[in-house]
């Protein structure tokens, strides 16, 4: 897992990069089978949300994969919890 902040900030801090590129979309890949456990790991200390939450918070899109390994109820719960972290994210 990688902290997205330094990567995204590169596009705004470096003038040459800023002139050549722009950030159109930040995509986070979320494993539906382990989504809830990873989000639960962040509950202990709200100031230390962890890399998973940081990735979701920075994302404009979440690609929820491995949905074939979970039932509909868990898939819906994953989406609900992802929206708690980032209300504007497209799933």
Structure write-up:
The structure is a single chain. With 91 residues, the chain is mostly helical. It has five helices and two strands, in the order H-H-E-H-H-E-H. The protein has helices at 4-13, 15-20, 35-41, 50-58, 72-85, and strands spanning 27-31, 61-65. The chain is elongated and about 45 Å long. The mean pLDDT is 87.
Low-confidence stretches: none
Query: What proportion strand?
Result: 5-15%
Measured on Cα atoms, how large is the radius of gyration?
A: 15 Å
Mean pLDDT: 87
Give the count of helical stretches: 5
In oligomeric terms, what are we looking at?
single chain
Tags for this model:
91 residues, mainly alpha, 5 helices, 51% helix, elongated
Concise account of the structure shown:
The chain has 91 residues and is mainly alpha-helical. The chain is built from 5 helices and 2 strands, in the order H-H-E-H-H-E-H. The chain has helices at residues 4-13, 15-20, 35-41, 50-58, 72-85, and strands at 27-31, 61-65.
